[in-house]
Specification:
alpha/beta, 8-stranded mixed β-sheet, 8 strands
Length: 357
């Protein structure tokens, strides 16, 4: 029987091999950590960060929210609206109402950069509740009074759901426009949620899985190029609605889509759109379908040809929450602010005849 050598040379060789293995494992681990960890945030107004050009309010925790006011003067307004923008949006977003109708009805509106977007400071503790409290603090800082209206667009509607849960006493009314849904809200029948979830592109399914089950690696997942990822980020989602498809094509061609994305993500994609995904598609503290009826009207506008939000799930929510005034728009997609006349219709639906108020 051949015995293993116990010479110093043999032992040293074995130790060297094990040392190299350990070094290799450490190197791999370090590479994984570096890959997963998002790059440093380039905060507006900091050294090397984008400049601050917008009006901003300072919140209790020291963060700043950038905002933009429009419509009639605040002191002359009959109705005051806080507008929560969607994915890749900013304080410049609106819901497409005409200046004439805004003036006629006496509407004041403030749009704001949600945390981490454009010129608002990031919030590492961002969640649905903090989104609602940010809206409340902004309204108080601008002196909007004890009650105001809250409008949300697309993914920005998580702030509206949060407000209905956490600060309903501050709202005079709420409007959800093409609100993005979370497939894992418990109120959805599992078979209906699975059916619609599985109709998405594989990359979109995986992006939502990672946002829910492994949010700490979402930045890495979205930035890597060898596994399927979100078609929404890449701008290749199939749009069944012709207007949506044409709008996206035009925005890509004229560069406005890139300009919009660059503004939204100028402090880093992680603090803006990726953290948005973690909040919207992660684990919620409550199910919107368990919300009690509020003492004010809530309107929901949804296109029946929306390629980003399944209309079947939106119908289920509206049926479950019978107090929601549901408006399904025929032959309409996701970009509701671009639908001619819809913004005016929304205002007239919500506020009616101003002389009767």
């Amino acid at each position: 029987m051949k015995m293993l050598s116990t010479s110093p040379r043999f032992i040293a060789g074995g130790q060297l091999t094990r040392g190299r293995r350990r070094l290799g494992l450490v190197s791999i681990s370090s590479w994984i950590v570096r890959s997963i960890k998002p790059p440093p945030t380039t905060i507006c107004g900091s050294g090397g960060g984008p400049p601050v050009t917008a009006n901003r309010v300072r919140l209790r925790d020291g963060r700043h929210l950038a905002y933009r006011e429009s419509g009639v003067k605040k002191t002359d307004a009959r109705f005051k609206i806080v507008f929560s923008h969607g994915f890749t949006g900013s304080r410049f977003d609106t819901f497409g109402a005409s200046p004439e109708v805004i003036k006629e009805l006496g509407v004041y509106m403030v749009g704001f950069d949600r945390p981490g977007y454009a010129e608002s400071d990031p919030n590492p503790d961002r969640d649905v509740r903090s989104a609602a409290l940010d809206v409340e603090e902004l309204a108080d800082a601008l002196g909007l009074g004890p009650k105001f209206y809250l409008f949300g667009n697309s993914l920005g509607n998580h702030a509206v759901w949060g407000a209905l849960k956490y600060i309903p006493e501050r709202l005079a009314g709420a409007v959800l426009m093409a609100p993005v849904i979370n497939y894992r809200w418990p109120g959805f029948p599992p078979e209906l949620a699975s059916e619609t979830y599985n109709k998405q592109e594989v990359g979109d399914q995986w992006a939502l899985r990672v946002a829910y089950y492994a949010p700490s690696i979402l930045h890495w997942w979205m930035e890597q190029s060898w596994l399927p990822t979100s078609t929404v980020i890449k701008g290749t989602t199939y749009f069944p609605n012709k207007r949506d498809a044409e709008i996206r094509k035009t925005r890509i061609a004229d560069g406005s889509q890139k300009k919009k994305m660059d503004l939204a993500t100028q402090q880093g994609r992680y603090e803006s759109i990726y953290r948005d995904m973690n909040v919207m598609f992660g684990k919620w503290e409550f199910d919107p379908m368990d919300l009690p009826e509020p003492p004010f009207p809530v309107h929901l506008f949804q296109g029946d040809e929306d390629g980003l939000v399944p209309v079947t799930l939106q119908r289920y929510i509206a049926d479950k929450l019978s107090w929601i005034k549901y408006h399904e728009l025929p032959e309409t997609g996701h970009y509701l602010s671009s639908v001619p006349g819809l913004g005016d219709r929304v205002l007239r639906t919500v506020f009616g005849n101003p002389s009767s108020k």
